[in-house]
Specification:
371 residues; mainly alpha; 4 strands; elongated
Length: 371
């Protein structure tokens, strides 16, 4: 154990003398700090220019205040309609929402005609998915008031009942569902918590970073092999040496990964996170070393890295979960790590992946030594 500890220390000392390793390692603190800072700033996937034709209109003010509490979209209040339109024309805003002088009257008129007619004027340069999503947010903000206007019109005009506004409101609110209609849970029973949309993909980005560290470790070892650093080592033991040398770098990266998950707020519990990180580091080691042996030279490995990293970013659930291509997903370690965060089943899959990849490493090593 003392000999292993000394070798671990010496290999780590050699790593920290490499500027490239320090740059890769320092990328995570900078990334985490930048994302946390960006999450605090005013941001949004769509910028909307808001204009109220009558700033004193109570309902328009209430709706705009509710909209501004939503962090997904970015809102800019304008003093004139022309200013809102010019922001869209000048590409400073993606859309402009023009509220009428009396929003309540517009909703009551729509309710009286039993039609869903426009109550807010929307100005856009084009139609795309984010803008469609933004209109859904606007509709959800207006719907409670439109729903009450429909209810009030039905009671007073269709049923002909004479009731006060207070009684009508009280009867209406008794039928409303309290609390959340849906509760999102993971496979392990943990309830899904809302997080800032900028921080949501952080675990996936960190997973890709750790695989990049695995490729760096494989590249360093390939360069050592070219220099003959381990030439005196028997051929049968070189695979174990390769595992040990690369595991040192990945152990450092796994510690940084755990700390980064903790700081960004995507952490679950210590036991699950540690086991997940260890298995992920092991699967990454097997994956990257197998590619190193198949490529043969550092130059070939370096040319494969961008292609493999791009494939993992698309196929693994880093930003979105792509349906289909399941056979390809199972080749990449981040797929297991990201799913194992809340699924014990994927723990076992990742452990099986390590065993299968270790067997593939051994088979390729025997084939290369035999040739």
């Amino acid at each position: 154990m003392r000999r292993i500890a000394v070798r671990y220390y010496l290999l780590n000392k050699r790593l920290f003398r490499k500027w490239s390793f320090l740059l890769v390692l320092c990328a995570v603190p900078l990334l985490v700090a930048g994302m946390r800072l960006a999450a605090r700033e005013e941001s949004g996937i769509v910028t909307v220019a808001l204009y109220m034709s009558d700033p004193s209109d109570e309902l328009s003010g209430r709706v705009t205040e509710q909209l501004q509490s939503n962090e997904v979209l970015r809102y800019v209040l304008c003093d004139t309609r022309e200013e809102a339109e010019s922001m869209v024309k000048g590409f400073r805003a993606d859309a402009a929402w023009i509220f009428p002088e009396d929003l309540g009257a517009s909703l009551r008129e729509a309710a009286a005609h039993k039609l869903v007619v426009p109550a807010v004027t929307v100005i856009e340069r084009e139609d795309n998915v984010p803008l469609t999503f933004s209109r859904e947010i606007l509709s959800s903000a207006l719907y409670p008031y439109f729903s009450y206007a429909v209810y009030e019109d039905y009671v007073r005009d269709d049923l002909g009942l004479e009731v006060s506004g207070g009684q009508l409101r009280e009867a209406y609110e008794r039928t409303l569902a309290e609390g959340r209609l849906f509760r999102l849970e993971y496979f392990d029973g943990q309830e899904s918590e809302e997080s800032h949309y900028l921080l949501a993909p952080m675990r996936g980005i960190l997973a890709l970073w750790l695989v990049l560290c695995g490729f760096a470790a494989a590249m360093y070892y390939a360069q050592d092999e070219q220099r003959g650093t381990f030439s005196r080592m028997p051929a049968k033991r070189r695979l174990w040496v390769a595992f040990g040398v690369q595991a040192v770098l990945l152990s450092d990266a796994a510690v940084v990964l755990l700390a980064a998950c903790r700081l960004t707020g995507v952490f679950t519990v210590w036991g699950r996170e540690i086991v997940n990180a260890v298995l992920f580091a092991g699967s990454t080691l097997m994956f990257c070393n197998l590619l190193r042996m198949l490529c043969g030279t550092p130059e070939r490995l370096g040319s494969c890295i961008p292609v493999v990293m791009t494939a993992m970013a698309v196929l693994c659930p880093v930003f979105i979960n792509v349906r289909g291509l399941e056979a390809l997903k199972y080749f990449f370690p981040p797929f297991y790590y990201l799913n194992a965060t809340h699924s014990t089943y994927h723990f076992y899959l990742m452990a099986a992946y390590i065993c299968i990849a270790a067997g593939a490493n051994g088979a390729v090593a025997v084939w290369k030594n035999g040739s």
